[in-house]
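Per reviewer request, we include the raw input and output of the structure prediction for the construct analysed in the revised manuscript.
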Amino acid sequence: MFELIKKDSLILSRSRSDLTELLFMPFILIAILGLALGNLTMTEFNINAFPVAVVHEQTTAESLNNWESELEERGVPSEGVRALVAQAEDVAPGEQVDYLFNSEEIQEWMTVEEYSSAEAAQAALDDGDISGVIIIPEGFNEAVWSALFLEEEGTHALTLEVQNVESVTTDILRSVLTTYANQFNLEASIAIATEGEADTANQQEESYGEVTNLTAADPITSFQYYTIGMGAMFALHTAPALASRAFLEKKQHVFGRLMISGTKPLTYLGSKLVSGTLITFIQLGILFGLSTLIFGTFRGYALNFWIDLSIVSFAFSLVVGSITSLLTSISLYSDSNTSSSFFGGIIVTLFAFIGGSFTPVEQFSESLRALGNWTPNGAMMTSYLQLMQGFSLTEVAPLIIRVIGMTAVLLVTSVVLFPKRRLD
């Protein structure tokens, strides 16, 4: 078997077309995609603070005066009026909106611009000077107070004016206002239910668990992502390259002479398994090493990471070796090289897309990501990326076991299909 493995390795190493496809092309794509996309693919989302306007059509003082007058007209006793006005002053939704948009957390995303009227703010929005206008209409505070303290339905609502409803800034504004409304309603409901006795500052502290960071590793860069992606994709091309050589050996009667010389059929098939495994492992090692040396892809990782990376790479190499065996069996059994060509041209491209070699598929659908993890390259890409993010080998073991299971199924199928007699 050793001589057969040596033969496959020497033939492949002397083929310029195979070396170009397996080593040169993936490295060129890593360089192009990494330089073109920079760190936009997997790094943290970042956006410059954008300006918004918050327009009050009525001051809080005017709202309190109107609220007091309305209560007196309803015939509420003077003591009740004073109590309700005092409570309303503590719960002024318009002022809370100002406080929210001037908080440090929100100012990281947006800044508040002052305008004298809704018309002036709308003109600025039309000119592109601001990204949105939040209008607190006249009577808004009174409507909220009536709903809170008198259990009446209010008809006033905040108004959000934007130029593009599909923009990122619009989504952020809508999210902030929705979160504010939900939080305000929750706190108001608690206050009403407890008759004002629920003071969050004085509540007994209870333990509801803790927040734990899964990893403190730096975000995955585009060079790291595409080194893994291109390596996984082009590793699959090793299988049809070796299987095509096996079909050529049959046509040139090399396979027949090997059988006549006493070489067992399963020994020949086993040599394709070992050749595919070793060549894939060396291919991945060269790509990862060159990428680290030139682009610093895996620079700074500890020795344990490299050991885990090697184990995952070996598992991936095994499944590529088993695919090589299967394609060899199909080619010799059917007396056609169509299966290898189809796998190299169609299946590899499909696996590369579903597995995420071209782009992180979870951006499109979590279901697509789950489906991709059932492809050999997709499962291994997820394992690689998780290792880079600080996961241990134990945590990625389920994906490795899944790939080993694929290897076993492919090997059994290749043995069943492989012809046991001389074919020529």
